[in-house]
Amino acid sequence: MSTSMNKPNRTQLGLYQNHALTTILNHYDSSRDVTVALPAGSGKTLLAIYAMEELGKRQEVNRMLYVSHFNAAVDNFARLIEQDDTSGKVDVMTFNALNRILSEHQIKPNHYQVIIFDDIDLRLQEVSNLFHQVGGFKINFVRTEDGDVDKKFVYSDLYIYTLNQAFNDGYLVKSQELDLSQQIDLLKEEVAKITTGTDWSQAISDTIVRQIDQLKKKNTEYFKAQELLLSGKIQHDEIIEMSYRKEQLLEFKKLLDDKSYFDRQVVDGSATESVWQKYFERNHWIFGFGLNYVFNTALEGGGLERAVSGFSVTGHGKRSDALLSTTGIIRSLCFGEIKTHRKEILKKVNIPYRSESWSISDELAGGIAQVQRTIQKSLMNIAEALNLKDANGYSTKESIYLFKPKSFLIIGSLNEFKNAEGQVQEDKFSSFELFRRSISDLEIITFDELYQRADAIVNRKWNISNS
């Protein structure tokens, strides 16, 4: 099936998109970089493509670059730009890839005449150094909800279009209409392949049915979302958050299911656990529900991975992979250990007492021991209060009281208990279930179970009852 989509001409762009494009072109002519602040889902990618199309016509522009944090965004932009006449001038890559080729001197700093840095607000510290290492005209995209853009994100003149403006201009409706139009174009392409008097191939038939189902689903979702908006049951800031979470949920699924994609995320010399570590640092919300159904918020002022500060705990450099602070009158620590979805949970024993019995794997046993050691050392050395310190050793003036802290371990996948046909090995699975239920104060959860909980968090708002 062809996946090409007809790109709308410039006259079909929103008024704000044309204004933003004009601003970009004017800044290029005056040799001034520009920052464009747009709400999520407002056609930023399309704007970036038109900017490259217009700038690519300039005689002095030979090479252009699109940079994003996410491989999925890079791949999507590459597919879309292929339809453009200037595609031969455009490279796409992640921030990590750009940083690597610059450090290895594979390109000169002035190799690109135009560079688009996408979503620079997501990991500002990581990308800020790159701005000074490359030349050329820079277009920096940041996300905004209400037009209040933090000055630390702005390295140039600023163009802002807010979510409220998008609602008032009716852009969300126009965006939905455009998406449905593109789906219909795809359907027409398949119908056009059918020759009069010939039988339909099963592949073409299945493709058309699938496209029709997608159109029905999109239409239903759109009207459900519209109803929620008009009823006031969901606010525009929730849409922004939900949009980001849906995007990250797709990333979660891809990391779980796409082996080559996961392997590409592993930085040279780093453990495979670091891939999940970085992902969860960007997505604290995943731990907000499901873990004993207690809402947890990340500790203020630090990443998900946090040094356990205080007394001799830090003497050995002990780190907890995930350290969450429980919201409540009494704030207690929730320690976590993050392995990978590829680690085994159970293993066969050489001389089993019973043929249907299984032993826990070394990775699972090690993860449990690591969490329990961290908790025990904290309780013994700190007793009741743990005074947190920043990276420079200064106290943050925050005490978190330890009263039998909760903990969790994320490891493996439930697919370990299934064969190729999807049948469950009941003895093995029941051994795992009985074991993890026997462990108190520690929740053992697989990565696919955590994904299902994240999916429930993301999709719960669209299931609000009309009653």
Automatic annotation (TrEMBL):
Residues that span the membrane, as ranges: none
A Pfam family the protein falls into: SduA_C
InterPro entries found in the cross-reference section: Helicase/UvrB_N, P-loop_NTPase, SduA_C
Residues annotated as domain Helicase/UvrB N-terminal: 13-118
GO terms assigned for molecular function: ATP binding; DNA binding; hydrolase activity
Span of domain Shedu protein SduA C-terminal: 271-451
Gene3D superfamilies assigned to the protein according to its UniProt record, in alphabetical order: P-loop containing nucleotide triphosphate hydrolases (3.40.50.300)
Protein name from the UniProt record: Uncharacterized protein
Taxonomic placement: Bacteria, Pseudomonadati, Bacteroidota, Sphingobacteriia, Sphingobacteriales
